[in-house]
Amino acid sequence: MLKGSLRSGILVILQLRFNGEQFQVIGPRHPILAVLGEDVILPCTLVPAMNAENMELGWFRTTFSQTVFIYWNHWEQTEEQMAEYRGRTSLVRGCLTEGHAAMHLRQVRVSDNGMYTCFFRHGGFYEEADLEVKVAGMGSDPQVHIEGPEEDGVRLVCKASGWFPKPQVQWRDLSGNNFPALSETHSQDTEELFSVEATLVVRDSSVGNVTCSVLNPVLGQEKAMAIYIPEPFFPQASPWKPAFAVILTMLGLLLLGACYFIRKAHSRRMQVRQEKEHQQRLKKQEQQAKEEVLKAIGKTTKGKLGADLDVYRLCKSLISDVCSLVDWRKEQFQMHLSWKDPSLLYCDEKCSVLGLKGITSGRWFWEVEIENELFSKWTLGVCRKDVRRTGNYLESSQRGFWVMGKGNNKYFAQTDPETCLSPRQDPCRVGVFLDYSEGDVSFYNMIDGSHIFSFPPISFSGALFPYFMLRYGGKHSQPIFFKKYFSLVVDGHNTFI
């Protein structure tokens, strides 16, 4: 009887000792959010709370062979650690005595996304818990441009890159109504970051602004860009087309008239010059006759004549009258050019003109038709009135010029630094769109209806003026001829006046 009681007591003591060494490992209930490029903490907790300084601690991926971090015998062990985690992990030691252990992971990557196992071992007993890390990162701002007309609408393309996980694209109008995307494609680069390209066909010409937003579904954050679609880009018939034809015809007649008056003025100057040269020849012949008579009667010498003949010289002034008269009530530009001497058209100074009246509000759209030869040079757009336009000045957005042009058989936008452009087709007719309140200056190829370039949005102050470079400076500079152009004003309802 005594022996049986002794055995029962020993079993109870051993059972209590064994149960005293048992514990549970608890991980986070919800996934841990980790932002690309930043640091993250992966915590685990012992229940009941006990000192974990003398335990073996470890964090693994799907199997124990994929070692992320091991702490054992008071040291961090790196022999079995995966190469991609070396130098990026450490133990948070502050709360080990209270049963709280955590691994510090630095510079989060896309490959860190997924499941982890937290492992604790003391003596012959061990426990583990699973935890999930969700990696997320914001990519580039979306870029939206007009691809061109398609069927009965306008095709828009929105692109963004460097996102994780796969982003979501939404198209909206000014009222927040969603458009169904025509297509949406995703791809991943070598770093597993996502790029997205979405297309949309807008068929309602009264929509105006369309916004493309790219959403990160994990962070719940988005980036967006809006673009304005001018009504002339829609392929349906417009009641303004006959008016456009009339305006273009009138501009053509005005240019022909200007050419006639320039040629007439040139002819008049040539007649005056020839008359002066004729008078000089008569004076010279008269002087020679006088010399011969004096020699004949022996009353002259072989000396020089008493006075030299005057030589006619042309004035070197570059241009007498260059003006750009803009009739804003008719919404059309009328440019009249007259030159003091056509032989001096090709001198060494730049010459540019502005619209007569400035733009301080509203939306404006005008087209310019250009003699766009192979090696022609031209620049057009808008600028502030107080910019420097004397001498060989420079054009850039930082100096108050928002212009594009062509030079050395290449197209460019005068940003800082300069932006090279690659239009699908040579723009012989350029559309300029100015939204003063939104700070938008955009250029369009009116030959194929494609978008050429948009300057980044800017807060304008003061009046802006249409800008035309008529001649570049230089020894072989040629004058620039803008053949035809007209403008339209867009009101607050996104319709043309």
TrEMBL record:
SMART domains: IG, IGv, SPRY. This is Butyrophilin subfamily 1 member A1-like. It is found in: Membrane. It comes from the Eukaryota. Belongs to the immunoglobulin superfamily. BTN/MOG family. Residues 285-486 form the B30.2/SPRY domain. GO terms for biological process: regulation of cytokine production; T cell receptor signaling pathway. Gene3D superfamilies: 2.60.120.920, Immunoglobulins. Residues 37-132, 142-226 form the Ig-like domain.
